[in-house]
Design brief:
This protein is 41% helix and 17% strand. By secondary structure, the chain is of the alpha/beta class. It has one domain: Metal-dependent hydrolases (TIM Barrel), CATH 3.20.20.140. Helix 2 runs parallel beside helix 3, helix 6 packs parallel to helix 8 and helix 9 packs across helix 10. About 3% of the residues have low confidence.
């Protein structure tokens, strides 16, 4: 059993063949996917995607959030995202009425590599979404790129948060610091093609109980599929690579990462 804990299957990249994409994933052992929103309009698409999905052989959940690139859209955008949680009432399937399919806030955080929004706007949006997650007892999908100092400074103000650092590709130093906050690490296809030995060493150091698998599809196709559209089925390639890197059996890594995802997202 495999779980793709960070995908964008609601993107238009899959509009013509989504059933085939999901069938491929099922064939590779994927049985759950989280499709991740990046702004208010995109989060609506994610919600509608899982509400209208006809392929019933894989469970698909979603997150809603504002990516740091779009943080400049401001408070009105954040209010729209907050209001989307009410749409979840249509699901009303379990112990958390209205939140059974909306399983996280994010992706949200800080991106100082591209700086498409100012640092001030990014921090305001990030704090708003942390507080939204705490209000609704939801985990957070964190995006952190070249912003570790501010990331740790901000989350230190919120003692009860839980979540995963999506697309983790930092160093052993950041692994050690992240573990102080009891967060999870999401590893994806970057690990299969990185030339940075520090990134691979960091991947080895992540405790079994804190590791998640993700594709970030349609982006970041793993080797040997670089240059092609990524798909949830490729989470198996990532799992096989990491099992070898970490000197684990495939079954051990697949089962443990699935247990972790089920626990974190309550799925």
């Amino acid at each position: 059993m495999l779980i793709d804990s960070h995908a964008h299957t609601h993107f238009s990249d899959y509009k013509d063949d989504i059933d085939e994409v999901l069938a491929n994933a099922k064939e590779k052992g994927v049985n759950k996917i989280i499709t991740v929103g990046t702004n208010a309009q995109d989060s609506v698409r994610a919600i509608n995607f899982i509400k209208n999905l006809e392929f019933d052989k894989i469970e698909v959940f979603c997150s809603i959030g504002l990516h740091p690139h779009d943080a400049k859209k401001g408070e009105n955008e954040l209010i729209k995202i907050s209001n989307l949680i009410n749409q979840g009432q249509a699901f009303n399937l379990g112990p958390r009425p209205g939140l059974d399919k909306i399983v996280a806030i994010g992706e949200c955080g800080l991106d100082y590599y591209r700086n498409l929004s100012s640092k001030e706007d990014q921090e305001r949006a990030f704090r708003y979404q942390i507080e939204l997650a705490l209000e609704h007892n939801l985990p957070i999908i964190f995006h952190v790129r070249d912003a570790w100092r501010d990331f740790f400074r901000i989350i230190t103000d919120y003692k009860e948060i839980t979540g995963v650092i999506h697309s983790f590709s930092a160093t052993p130093k950041e692994v050690e610091k992240t573990l102080e906050y009891d967060l999870y690490f999401g590893l994806n296809g970057i690990m299969t093609f990185t030339k940075d030995k520090n990134q691979l060493e960091a991947a080895k150091l992540i405790p079994n109980e804190k590791l998640l698998l993700e594709t970030d599809c349609p982006f970041l196709s793993p080797a040997p599929n670089r240059g092609k559209r990524n798909e949830p089925a490729n989470v198996r390639i990532i799992a096989e690579f990491l099992a070898d890197l970490r000197n684990q059996s495939f079954d051990e890594l697949a089962n443990r990462t699935s247990q972790n995802a089920n626990k974190l997202f309550n799925i």
